[in-house]
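Many introductory courses stop at the sequence. We go one step further.
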Amino acid sequence: MMMGSLKSPNGGSDPNAGTPAQILGRKIRALRREAGLSLRELGAAVGVSLVQLQRYETGVSPLSTSRLLLISTVLGVRPGSLLGDIEMTAPDDQANRRRQEERELAVLFASLSEPGDRRAILSLARVSAARDELQRLSNPGHAQDSYLSLPEAK
């Protein structure tokens, strides 16, 4: 959870750093403060708790379209002005599939009651991950991307 401004990699403040939800949240916070409204006042005006509004402002919770419209109306700005500088990119299909598979695996693993089944699946996952890591290390162009710190061959 980010409370202040985000820092860019070079250490300076960058108002456009962070996720789209964080950037939008900072814009809402700045406009709320400019309007002289407290978290409680704006929250009450749009029908959410102080804590929920704080989550919107920090980018922890995403805003629904209807909530964004309400907030922009109360703050006296057009919704487009809040979204104008936020670059949205469509998530990669392969990354989406991978996340879905990871969630499914976690759910299925949690449902296993037999300790032997759990150990077997963990063993398979460890062997597969080690094999993939060795393949990455054998490719010289990607060895530095490895999270294992193995000595390089001389």
